[in-house]
Every structure is written in C-alpha cells, then in structure tokens.
Amino acid sequence: MSQSQCSRRLSILDLALGVCVALLAFSPAPALAIPSFARQTGLSCSTCHTVFPELTAFGRQFKLQGYALGTQLEDKPLPYSLPVALGLQVGNTTVKDRSKGADPDEDFPQANETIVQQVAFYYGGKIVGNLGAMAQYNWDGIEKHWGAEMVDIRYGDQAKAGGKDLLWGVSVANAPTMQDLWATTPMWGFPHLDNAGIMPMNTSLLDMTLMNQVGAVTLYGFYDSQYYGAFGLMSNGKKGAFKVLNVGDELETAVDGVAPHMRLAWEKDWGTNSLMIGMHFVQADIFPDPDVQSGPTNRYTDYALDSQYQGSSGDHMYSMHAFYVHEKRDWNASFPAGEASNSSDTLDTFKINAHYWYKRKVGGGIGYFDYSGDTDMLKYGMGGMPSAMGNATGSPDTQGWIAEANWLPLPGEQNLKLGLRYTAYTKFNGASSDYNGFGRNASDNNNWFAYMWLLF
C-alpha cells in the first residue's frame, strides 16, 4: 500500500472525526438516528433499529402501520410539525489498481478522492391519519444528479381475523422491495451504502435493477405477528402518475405493461430472538432499449428465497441474512435480433452476511456474494474493450467478499455512523485473471471505502 493511498483513506476518517467532535461539543442534546420518525414518536432510534437501517420487530410494526404512529409533532406549529430530516454522506473509495483500463477517469470517475456522496432531504412520518411516507430526494455525488432515491407512501391499519391481529395496508413505491420489512434483499441489505468502485455488470430484477425504474402498488398483510404476504403490480416509472416517484432519475429499464411481484414470509419471535424465512416472485417484460418502447420484449422471471436471524444478549447484538435469486432471462426480442447467443439464459445470485454489535456502538459485518450464470458472448461479452468493465469471457460470473467495521460515536443515539469497508473480488466478469483481455485481474478491482453517514 502506497503512502498516498494511506493518506486518502485517512482523510475521510479525519473529516468524520472532526464532525463527530463538533457535534459532541456543540449539540445541546443528542439527535436521533431516524430523526423525523423519532421526533414524531418520542422514541429513541434503538426502539426501531438494531443499528440503522436494519429494523427491529417494533420497527417493522411501525412501517406496517403506515409510518403514522406517534403524536409528538401534532401540537407544534409549522414548519416544526412536519416530519422532515436531512442526511449527509461523505466517502472515499480507493481502488487497488486503476491503471489496467482504457481511461481510469472514465472507469472510476469518483474513485481515489473524498467526495460528498449524498445530500438527502427526507419526509419521514405521518401525512394524515393512517397515511404516511418515507420519501428521500437527494444529490447523488457518484452519478452527479438530483433525483428521488426512495419513495414509499403507505396507508396502514389493523383489524381482527380469527381472534388474531392483522396488520394490513397498501403501499405505493418506486422499487419492488422498497416496502419490504427485512434487511435481506439488496434494497435494504448489506452493504448499506454504494461506493465509487466497480460493481457487477449483470444483476437480477430484485437486485436493484428496477430501483427508480417503476411505480409499484402493493397490498400487504401481517397476520398474528408471524405470517406476511404482499402482492404488488409494477409498471413503467416514467409514465403517468408514477413519474412523480422517480423525479430526476434516468430510465434505464423500461417495463412493458404490468409486472407482478409476490412476497411471502414467516417470522417467529422468541425472547430477544427472531427468525424470518421468505420468498419472492417477480416477472417483467422489458424492452431491449428503454428509449424505444415498442415492439418485442425480453421476459425476466425471478424466484427468490431469503432468511434473517436477529438476536441479542445483554450488550451484544448479532444478525445474519441470506438472499438467493434464480432469474430466467428469455431473450424473446434480443435473440431473433442477433443480440443474444442463446434463446434464454439464467443468472443465480447468492448473498450471505453476518453482523455483530457491542452496545450498538462498535461492530461490523462480513459478507460473501456470488453471481453466476450462462455464458452468452453476444449479451455479456465486451471483448476488445480495455475498459475495466470489459468482458472477454461472455460470462456474468462475479464473486467476492465484503468486510466492514463501524463506530457510532454519539452517546445514546445512532445518527452518526463512521465506517471502513474492504471489498475483495475473487472473480469478475467470468475470470479471476485477464477478464477483459487486456491484462486486468479481478483483484485489481479490490477497494477500500471509508465513509461518514450523518442524519439529523
């Protein structure tokens, strides 16, 4: 490791520590990790979160009931009665080797420098009655644009069915798993922040491909605090009323018509432990070119399994998450047009991670990811390209490990998180070595990511 790389990594930590000291010195009272929700309910962030953004059992109940619990803001005058909050993320991503590519500044435009990754504005809480929202509009410092990052507007209520409690509601969101309750799907899963390094080229519909690309209306129910079911319909996020959910975001994946999404899960709580086992199904017809929304489409079908365990013992907290999705890609448009080598391909994604926290202050996690699928030179191959994203194998296979350490320094609360993450690739675009045909190895994409995440 060079001295310059060490200096870059330390610069973000120095900045984060400086902000931390300033907050400790000048804040008259500690802020809260999810500020608008906490101000609305009068509860500390640890009531709803193990460590943000992962939810506790109570946090899941709060979300199910439309973000509308709590009356602490009702008697306050405008604008103090509004459940709004701000967020700031500052990060530095140091890539191991940027030289084996066509243009380092094009392959990694925001790497090896400290940047403001996100400035976020939140509406998080009650709108009226049982109707509430969690909506985030932000500046993305990696993509360099303003846009609606996350939107979930929901109505939640409760009833009795067979003598048991039923929490039910309807959600309107801009991603197929935005309304989900567990930290298993990539929408809410580890790692919780993107960095400016390289990412897998091919991901499934449930693995962020439809994020900011759709409008989803979902009806859900949670029966007897054990059985969860949801059924939603998604359509193009840049048409009709759904455009407001994706303001500022480019359309990269255009859904034709209506796409169904089904979610089932079983959760069991005992003592300070909880276990969830669940599944997803989603199917969508996608135009090959989002700018030409007519003609034949390709069909993507996802079958997913996921599981989460949470536990605690005194000052110690731990959790595990697993996510697996099998996606079938029927190239009904691309194959006849000579844009795919096979009439259909499959892509399997497996992610697993474990986390430990001491007093919700110090901890971290380690995870493994594995993308594997059929070789398709016309669809995935980018041979002859010296770019770091080049693919001389025609395979989407990418594997690696992620390890992250965190510190939440403010006493009693969770609104400031400092993190240091290392991502190690053992395979990228189908090979461990020379995957782009110009001498670039998977390990050249390894990176350090240091960040500060502040909510207030």
Can you tell me about this structure?
- There is one protein chain.
- The chain is built from seven helices and 16 strands.
- It is mostly beta strands and 456 residues long.
- It has helices at 3-26, 35-41, 45-48, 57-64, 104-107, 205-209, 377-380, and strands at residues 84-95, 114-128, 131-140, 145-161, 164-173, 214-223, 227-236, 259-270, 273-286, 298-313, 316-330, 344-358, 362-373, 398-407, 416-427, 447-455.
- It is globular, with a radius of gyration of 22 Å.
- The two termini are 36 Å apart.
- The protein has a 16-stranded antiparallel beta barrel with strand order 1-2-3-4-5-6-7-8-9-10-11-12-13-14-15-16.
- A hairpin with a 2-residue loop joins strand 4 (145-161) and strand 5.
- It has one domain (3-455): Porin.
Entry summary:
The protein is mainly β and 456 residues long. It is built from seven helices and 16 strands. The chain has helices at residues 3-26, 35-41, 45-48, 57-64, 104-107, 205-209, 377-380, and strands at 84-95, 114-128, 131-140, 145-161, 164-173, 214-223, 227-236, 259-270, 273-286, 298-313, 316-330, 344-358, 362-373, 398-407, 416-427, 447-455.
The radius of gyration is: 22 Å
Kindly report how far apart the N and C termini lie.
36 Å
CATH superfamily: Porin
Put simply, the count of helices is: 7
Q: How many DSSP-defined strands?
A: 16
Amount of helix: 10-25%
CATH architecture level-2 label: Beta Barrel
Q: Point out poorly predicted stretches.
A: 1-33
